[in-house]
Amino acid sequence: MAAALRKILTFGSMLLPYGVHELKRRLKNRHKLSADVARSLAENRQLAGLHAGQRCFILGNGPSVKGLDLSRLQGQTVITVSNGYLHSDFDKFQSRYHCVPQITYGLMTTEDVVRWFDEMHSHLGGAELFLSSTEAELVRKHNLFPGRTVRYLVLGESFDERTSEEIVDISQPVPRVESVPVMALMIAMYLGFKEIILLGVDHDRFLSSTYQYAFDLKVQKGKDFTVNADGTLTRGHHDEFQQLARLWRQYRAIANIAKANGIRVVNSTPGGALDEFERRPFEAWFEK
Fold it and tell me: Superkingdom of this entry's organism (predicted)?
């Protein structure tokens, strides 16, 4: 009964504005994996448990980060996301891994993505990059990220259709994500991290009705179809809450997986709305 209800909710969500786009994307990408992507997925097996027992920070891009001294992350293992290379003091701590989820095309054209990836490559230092397999052909065609390790995730079905509490295997198709920190959490758990700290994962735009970043965007400025030029939201509360419900279910699933596998996920974001993980102040991680 629960499984049937989840399928109904998943189909219903496809009737929403973003859902229409997502349905088109899923139908378009129902094809056999290319040889390159299949090989990349197989290579992801080398990452299983690579950082067993270690700690990492997942650094989001929410405005709460402006109040943090990110230079304190120097010497820590950091996973950044999307435009996270624009954070202040990035050159001081630099990330070990960087994640970009499936890209929504529309305002963001193929040419924009190429320019964005070029910008990303020029700022990321030696970080290993995780992309959605939907961008693999674009990277190959334009010879992007030369000399950098680029790995792919096949973001497939819904978290609502996954009942297992085993760590998500990124060498196989994984659930698609509503927000990139969920992707970073899946990767961090597969890498073996036993303590994962979230920073700048605010998710509170439904409270303020605006969406801001911890920095000024460059290539991606004005390319988010859910936000007007002044930062106000383009979607009404109904559509916004539907998306948030999907996102919170994903965080709940991640929290359950973490608990079942002895992984501690801590939210050290100053403020924000995410309430699925225990809280601890950022400064407390550096107290002796």
Answer: Bacteria
